[in-house]
Each structure stands twice: as C-alpha cells, then as structure tokens.
C-alpha cells in the first residue's frame, strides 16, 4: 500500500475514533462508578490492530485521543492524559492478546478494556497522588467485561467486512 493511501486510511480511522470518543463523552453511563464508559472508540483501535497491526493501532489510539479531546475541550487536562495512556496500553494489550495469545477479537477487546480502565486509574492516582482511587478497580473490571465483549464483537464484525469499509491491503 502506498504512503498516501495509508495516511488516508489512518485519517479516516482517527476521525471515526475521535468522533466516537467525543460522542461517548457527552453521555453519562447510568452506573455509580465514575469514568465507566462503553469504550466505543476502542472498536476503531481494535479494528486497526486486527487489520493492519499494532503500529496502525497505536496511531489510531493517539490520534483519536488527540482529536476527541480537542472536540470535547479536554486537551491538556488529566482526562486527556488518562485517555491517551489508556488507549496506548489497551492497543498494546489487544495486539498481544490477538496476535500472540490468539484470543480473538472479543478476548483481545476484553483484555484491552480491563487494561484501559486500570491504566486510567493508575494515571489518575499519579496525577492526584491518591491511591484510594483503586477502590473502583473491581467495579471497573466487572464493567469492562461486557463493554469489551460488545466492542470486540463490533470490531470483529467490521474486520470481517473490512474490504468494503477500507481497503485491507497489508
């Protein structure tokens, strides 16, 4: 694939992921756990990982965190740092589970969702110097499982139809 086609594909994925990030930030999840979300933007990151590998998944994770935070007005805030770090770690974990462990899209997505939540808690604890935030970890892990299943199914669906969405040349 030529460089222009790859850049165009990444731009489309980043725009989709950033838009999902921004849309999801506008709606509160009706649970009593701060920060709990479905992780819709992770669908795009996992799709990129499955179709084109970790490097493109990392580009999408960084780009969507930047774009989504610019749209939502959180750039330069702790929320941006948490989103960026969570997305980067989740992309690496999803790639490891998908390519190394052979977990499939759903297994990789669940692992990515759990790692995303735990990374965000860790970054929040570092920023605030308050380790008590980890009291939320069991709840966020429990919520990450169904969210990871849903996003994994969506990414798997997109990957199975990838040729019609964006060219899947590797």
The percent range for helix content is: over 70%
- CATH-derived topology: Arp2/3 complex 21 kDa subunit ARPC3
Uncertain runs: none
Output the radius of gyration. Answer: 15 Å
Helices, by number, come to 7
- The name of the CATH architecture is Orthogonal Bundle
**Name of the CATH first level:** Mainly Alpha
Measure the end-to-end span: 7 Å
Q: What portion of the residues fall into strands of 2 or more residues?
A: under 5%
N-to-C series of helices and strands? HHHHHHH
The gross shape turns out to be: globular
List the domain count as a whole number: 1
Report the sheet with the most strands, covering strand number, pairing sense and barrel closure: none
Number of strands: 0
What does this structure look like?
- It contains 7 helices and no strands.
- The model has no long low-confidence stretch (mean pLDDT 89).
- 77% of the residues lie in helices and 0% in strands.
- By secondary structure, it is mostly helical.
- The longest helix is centred in the C-terminal third of the chain and has 25 residues, at 104-128.
- It starts with a helix and ends in a 5-residue tail after the last helix.
- It is globular and about 50 Å long.
- It has a single domain (3-165), classed as Arp2/3 complex 21 kDa subunit ARPC3.
């Amino acid at each position: 694939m030529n460089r222009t086609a790859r850049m165009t594909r990444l731009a489309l994925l980043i725009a989709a992921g950033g838009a999902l990030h921004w849309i999801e930030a506008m709606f509160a999840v009706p649970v009593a756990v701060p920060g709990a979300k479905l992780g819709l933007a992770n669908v795009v990151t996992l799709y990129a990982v499955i179709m084109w590998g970790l490097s493109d998944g990392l580009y999408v994770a960084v780009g969507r965190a930047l774009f989504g935070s610019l749209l939502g007005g959180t750039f330069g805030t702790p929320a941006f740092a948490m989103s960026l770090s969570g997305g980067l770690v989740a992309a690496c974990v999803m790639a490891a589970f998908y390519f190394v462990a052979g977990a499939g899209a759903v297994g990789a997505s669940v692992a990515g969702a759990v790692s995303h939540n735990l990374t965000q808690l860790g970054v929040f604890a570092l920023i605030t110097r308050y380790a008590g935030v980890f009291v939320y970890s069991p709840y966020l892990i429990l919520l990450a499982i169904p969210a990871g299943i849903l996003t994994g199914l969506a990414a798997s669906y997109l990957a199975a139809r990838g040729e019609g969405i964006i060219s899947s040349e590797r």
